[in-house]
Model the fold of this input.
Amino acid sequence: MLWGGRFAGGPSPELEALSRSTHFDWRLAHYDIAGSHAHAKALGAAGLLTPAEEAELHRGLDALSDGIAAGTVVPDPSDEDVHGALERLLIEEVGTEVGGKLRAGRSRNDQIATLFRCYLLDHSTIVGGLLLDLVDALAGQAEEHLVAIMPGRTHLQHAQPVLLSHHLLAHAWALLRDVDRLADWRRRVESDSPYGSGALAGQSLGLNPELVAAELGFTGSTANSIDGTASRDFVTELAFVAAQAGVDVSRIAEEVILWATKEFAFVTLHDSWSTGSSIMPQKKNPDISELARGKSGRLVGNLTGLLTTLKALPLAYNRDLQEDKEPVFDSIDTLEVLLPAFTGQVATLTFDVDRMAELAPQGFSLATDIAEWLVRQGVPFRVAHEVAGACVRECEQRGIELHELTDDDFAAISPDLTSEVRSVLTVEGSVSSRDGRGGTAPTRVAEQLAELRSRVADA
Ligand code: ARG
Done:
């Protein structure tokens, strides 16, 4: 018990049950111990521990660390949280005389704010690496299908032919921005160690927060102790990046689900990365993508829950803040289990490039090419759009595709439509003509693939 002095009796079992957080904050135990090592150094440097006392504390903390790793040191049901449990266990290890000195000049409020950051910093790096693996898988598929052509869609309708590689890389760029967001988040968080903020007002013992910060791998300590203990935007921001990444993955997932249908038949899923049905022997289901789509909902939910907990919460620390951990832990856990599976699924997709290419010009997706060809002949775009639209109307009435119109048909629609217009009525001609930066021409897509790869190398 951390606060016996002014209480005549212990907490009721109901309060204990409500208050307890060890079932979810025990995962922070190693970080709490690292914080305690650093704090012991600060106490020693301030002359509040003799060298022997400090050494004994480090020894005791190491013993706890070993016990935690081995699973022999665990919280007791009477422990409220990871901090209380570790203090009790340390005192059992080194005795009250020395163990009781470690709490001086710190509060669970600055402890949790610091070690929660440490945990999230480590896991943001893991998640960033997993996102890069997915970017790699997309880039690998793009490289393999560099010049394969597919129907590009807007409103899910055939729009213009594009390269499959171009489409896949569009997803990769979005994910790379999520990786970048994580790096940006880390830059802010790793310069902001709250140890030394105390409960809210700072500490009076002459401890050096910069020393603790450096020991824990931070580049600086918090400038305002109230902010240090009460702010949780580092949690919501990470939950946002997790939610955004989940949403980005869900957009790929939805396409895989569509592409794997009989109607699309663009992709075949690898046996090891798809599932069967317990009743329908023929089934091959895109469960990984469906779970990705579903889990993006819980990632958004976690972010929403965290923001709702923080809304209008007065300064400084309030116990509401104990609700900050489970949602973001869940977001991290979710991505750490989802991303490897999703990457495996993407890396092993087999594309039916012939079918994609065959469908690419259908639905009059080359109509824009006719209009732009006319513009290159000096026809105003407004007129060109009308003329190309008339071609589509003609084809629709006769149940044919644009390239099946004869020279006479073209001439009857507009005198500007000479037979040269046929040069853009192939999907290859269409994609090659979109050769401005970022466009779908094979040279441009090869260029963006190289650009993406160099960004990945720098990430
Ligand atoms: N376990 C708490 C949390 O996660 C930290 C303890 C602070 N408790 C307190 N009564 N000040 O937020």
